[in-house]
Amino acid sequence: MTLHVNGVAHHKEFDHRTTVLDALREHLGLTGAKKGCDHAQCGACTVLVDGRRANSCLLLAVAHDGAEITTVEGLADGDALHPLQEAFLEHDGFQCGYCTPGQLCSAVGMIAEAGEGAPSHVTPLAAAPPGAPVRLSPDEIRERMSGNLCRCGAYVNIVAAIGDVAR
């Protein structure tokens, strides 16, 4: 099968039980996505699959043959950091850093979802016409990022970093 990871095609054979997370970490040497809970409850393993954020610990690699996967290693453009990576540094949006790769990938996906007009639980019903971009207030960011946990409690700085980039 072929996994396209960060713009590079990887032709590999995987056991049918191998998750995307294990394929990335153990077979491709990309250790950015972390194995936190292994139950899709913490978000440390979040990557982008075909542009959508996903918990890679629950995805079977064989079900994603041909998919385009972006990990935190693929967010930067060479030596130029992604704007969210720069904002996380500027706002001190991490402490131990364990959750940071998942937070960054989730934030990239979340900003795209809001840009496409996807509402969240806290989006006002009369906010805008269907399909119009959703303004990412701090409440919107907190709700949309609620699947990514930070044991250190850097949430205030994470929300500020994402808010800066979303504006």
From TrEMBL:
GO MF entry, a single one: oxidoreductase activity, acting on the aldehyde or oxo group of donors
Pathway: Alkaloid degradation; nicotine degradation
Matches recorded under Pfam families: Fer2 (PF00111), Fer2_2 (PF01799)
Species in which this protein is naturally found: Streptomyces telluris
Keywords: 2Fe-2S, Iron, Iron-sulfur, Metal-binding, Oxidoreductase
Residue ranges of domain 2Fe-2S ferredoxin-type in the record: 1-75
Name of the protein this chain belongs to: 2Fe-2S iron-sulfur cluster-binding protein
PANTHER family linked to this entry: OXIDOREDUCTASE WITH IRON-SULFUR SUBUNIT, OXIDOREDUCTASE, IRON-SULPHUR BINDING SUBUNIT-RELATED-RELATED
Top-level lineage group: Bacteria
